[in-house]
Each structure stands twice: as C-alpha cells, then as structure tokens.
Write a structure and sequence with these properties.
Among the domains are: about 110 residues, no CATH class; about 60 residues, no CATH class; about 120 residues, Nucleotidyltransferase, domain 5 (2-Layer Sandwich); about 35 residues, no CATH class. With about 475 residues, it is an alpha+beta fold. The protein has 14 helices and 12 strands. The chain has a 5-stranded antiparallel beta sheet. It has a 4-stranded antiparallel beta sheet with strand order 6-7-10-9. It has a 3-stranded parallel beta sheet with strand order 8-11-12, covered by helices on one side. InterPro entries: FAR1_DNA_bnd_dom (IPR004330), MULE_transposase_dom (IPR018289).
Length: about 475
C-alpha cells in the first residue's frame, strides 16, 4: 500500500521536480536515493530520438529486483552448475527520465517508490550491486599491493582498516578479484614487442586462413632456458580454451626446484607435423639449443616429432620411475661427463671405493648450484612493465598528504582548515580531469603489429575421446 503521509508526499514532489543535465546525472541521483532506502537499481528501457538515432530521449531506471527470471533459466535439465538464487520478484519501483529536446535538460517523467520486497539495512545497503565500485585511488592502492605480492583477501583487510570499516570501503573482496583479473588481462593482451625486444611469437594458418598454431616467449623465457634448459617438460593435455585446442607449455625446473616457463604454444591437432612445427619454432627461438632430456606425456605423435627435431635428446615419459643398473666394476670410461656434462655411475662407484664423501666440483654442473644464474645479467627482468608517470605523481602526492594529514589531525584548529583546503582542491581538480582510461601500475603496452585480417579464428577441435587424467 502506498504511503500517503505528508512526509512521503513532500518527498515525492521533491523528487519529481528535479532536473538533470544528463542521463548519467539522473542515474546517480536515483542510485544515491536507493542507497538511502536500502535497494539497488539498474538501467532498463530506453527510447532513441527519431531524428538522430545516436541520441537518447528517454531512459527508465528500475529496482534491481524488477521483472522475473526467464522460464528457460528456471529449468534445471542437465545443468552442471547450481542455479543462482531468485533475485527478481517483479518489483515496480522505478524512475523514468526524459529529455527536453529544445534545452537538453532531463526531467522526471514517472516515479514509483513502492517495493514488494524487504529493503536492506543501512549497514548492508552499500554491498548491493549498484553501490559497489572501486574508486580510482583504491585501484592504485590495489595494484601497488599486488606488486608487493599481498594476497587479495589481505588487500581487503588493509582497505577496511584504512577506511574504518567494510561499509566505507565500497567494494567486496570479489570485486578486488575481478578488477585484478581484468587489469592483468588487459596488460597481457596488449603486450608490446618494442618494450621487450626479445619477445617472440609466430603463428601458423591453414589454407582457408584459420589459425592452426601459435607460439610465443619473452626475454625471461630466453634467460631461463639458457640457464636451466637441459631438461624440458611439455605435454598437451590442457584444453581450457573455447576452441578445445591443445595448450602446450614448455617448462623446466630452476636451481630452487621452482617451475620456469620457456615458452607456450597452441596447436589445432595433435599430429606429428604439428608437433614438428612447434619444436622447430621453439628451437629457432632458443638459438638451436637442444635440451639434454625431454619429458612428455607419451603421445606417439609427440615422440615421432622429438626423434625428428631433437634426435640427440633423451626422451622420458612423465610419471615413470627411472632405474639405473648397479655397476660393480669398470669396463672402461663412458665419457658421459665430457660429452653431456653430467657425471655417470662409474664416477660415483670410484668415489665410493675411494671413500670420498664430497663430490668434486668438476662433477657438478653449474645449473645445480646456487650460482646457476651468474652468467646471466644481474637484472633479469625487462622494462615491459615500467610504471606509469601518473603512478609516480600519485605516490608523491600521497606521501605528502599523508604527512600533512598526520600533523593536522593532531591539532583541533588545523584539522578543519586542512580539510576545507583538500575539499576545495579536490572539487576544482576533478572538474579538469579528462574522463579516460587510466593505468595505475605498469605502463599499458601497445599491441604487436600483426596483420590480423589474414588470420581467422581457429576451428573447434574435437577431442580424441581419451579419459582425462586427474
């Protein structure tokens, strides 16, 4: 039942008498009003100008619980994921704004403030969808903390402590996860070759121009392969992309037993020809340095490609137990140490006979020692992720304002004065800032110049029918 009290009528007339300079201004007004009431809003129906289809002349803002879920989403069928809770209950609350064509101003054409569902409390309303957002200064802090390897839930804890409560932060930990994911994806997707001179990629297309293969690596991959490329592990069991194409990572282990990536590739079909192209491309990128040993998942096409491209590399199957025969005598030197740089069982047998407890330095390859990276440049990272100038300016202003705020907060007379100065400067500065996409951490790289018009989307690859290995 509608509230017909004098206070409600006064509020109604106050709302419908508002005028807005733009559609967005009207949305912000209704969203702020919904925050006070305990509801969330979203944009709905729109009408375009008949003379100019690029201009709006009417927009409807509705409660987030307006309407009902479509029947096709109500049926479970063979659904693998659990259906979301019902959120739309046919709420009729709305605000409709229309534009006066002559003046360009927007007025309230219709307003209904009746909700058919319970409203959120003031403490929880800030967690509703339309009221959650990560402001620009929070994005800068999140990127900085991620660079320092602070975990996402710890970032949320820091923001809550900094702002004085989760309701003041204005976002949730899930929002932080989503922002970090999208930010990294944009940065990686736009990686540019001139920021990383050693960045390498190539692709293979079929007769119709569809992508059949792709390989890429960066300068860090080259440095890691130079130091730890004696053993390479790769398989093609991962098929998480939308085209079901096998993803082939080339990985190894460093002297800390941590995984390092030498390169990555995608192929359309697991054939010996496709693997030969992948291995030849990898070898060309790595200055034709072949690994001593290769560990794979046992694919027959992969084995044939290894014998063709890397005939002198030892091939082992992943998960196998490697057993060596016990030698009780020496029938001659196998020259394994001189040939491939690793000690043989004969050396260990002789050392045991001589009761030598420590391995000789000549028997220990450099890649097994803590000085494995000594031959590489001291700075192993490239300048691909140089920080933006805006981040440097932000840090300088932040440090200055923190120091001044700390001193002003300790004085009753200085606090209101400093607060007023900040508010005045903030309002004047924000009016001069252009509304454009900002970068908060690494400089946004430019896309590598590729003639993408000649490369079509790959065709979906059918699986081989083998059971997925856990």
């Amino acid at each position: 039942m509608a509230d017909l009290s004098e206070e409600a009528l006064s509020e109604y007339y106050e709302i419908v008498s508002n005028m807005f300079g733009s559609e967005d201004e009207g949305f912000q007004f209704y969203n702020n009003y919904a925050l006070e009431k305990g509801s969330s809003v979203r944009k709905s129906y729109v009408e375009w100008d008949n003379d100019n289809r690029d201009l709006l002349n009417l927009r409807k803002f509705v409660c987030s619980r307006e309407g009902f879920r479509e029947s096709k989403y109500m049926k479970n069928g063979n659904r693998k994921r659990k259906a979301r809770n019902i959120s739309r209950v046919g709420c009729r609350a709305r605000l409709v704004v229309a534009q006066v064509k002559e003046t360009g101003w927007w007025y309230v054409k219709d307003f209904i403030d009746e909700h058919n569902h319970p409203l959120a409390t003031q403490e929880l309303a800030c967690m509703l969808r339309s009221h959650r957002r990560i402001c620009e200064e929070q994005k800068v802090s999140i990127v900085e903390m991620e660079i320092s390897r602070i975990l996402k839930h710890q970032i949320m804890d820091i923001l809550e402590m900094r702002y004085g409560g989760f309701d003041i932060v204005g976002c949730t930990d899930r929002d932080i996860y989503n922002f970090s994911y999208s930010y990294k994806r944009e940065t990686i997707a736009a990686a540019r070759q001139d920021k990383d001179p050693e960045f390498f990629f190539t692709y293979l297309v079929d007769a119709d121009g569809h992508l059949n293969g792709l390989f890429w690596s960066d300068s860090q991959s080259l440095l890691d392969y130079e130091a730890f490329g004696d053993v390479v592990i790769f398989d093609s069991r991962c098929r998480t992309n939308r085209y079901n194409m096998p993803f082939v990572p080339f990985v190894g282990l460093n002297h800390y037993r941590s995984t390092v990536i030498f390169g990555c590739g995608i192929i359309s079909h697991e054939t010996s020809e496709a693997y030969e192209w992948m291995l030849q491309t990898f070898s060309a990128d790595m200055a034709q340095k072949h690994p001593i040993s290769v560990i794979t998942d046992g694919d027959l096409a992969m084995q044939r490609a290894i014998r063709v491209v890397w005939p002198n590399s030892n091939h082992r199957l992943c998960g196998c137990e490697f057993k060596e025969d016990c030698l009780y005598g020496i029938s001659g030197s196998c020259r394994k140490l001189e040939c491939i740089g690793t000690p043989c069982s004969h050396i260990f047998y002789v050392l045991r006979i001589l009761e030598v407890d420590e391995l000789l330095k000549c028997c220990i390859p450099d890649r097994w020692t803590m000085s494995a990276k000594s031959a590489s440049p001291p700075t192993r990272k490239n300048n691909m992720y140089d920080y933006s100038t805006s981040l440097g300016r932000y840090r300088e202003l932040r440090n200055l304002s923190h120091a001044t705020s700390s001193r002003a907060s300790q004085c009753i007379e200085s606090f209101p004065c400093f607060k007023r100065v900040l508010q005045e400067e903030a309002s004047s500065t924000l009016s001069n800032v252009r509304n454009e996409r900002m970068r908060y951490g690494p400089v946004l790289p430019q896309m590598v110049q590729v003639d993408s018009a000649k490369v079509l989307d790959p065709l979906h690859v059918k699986g081989q029918g083998a059971l997925r290995k856990d």
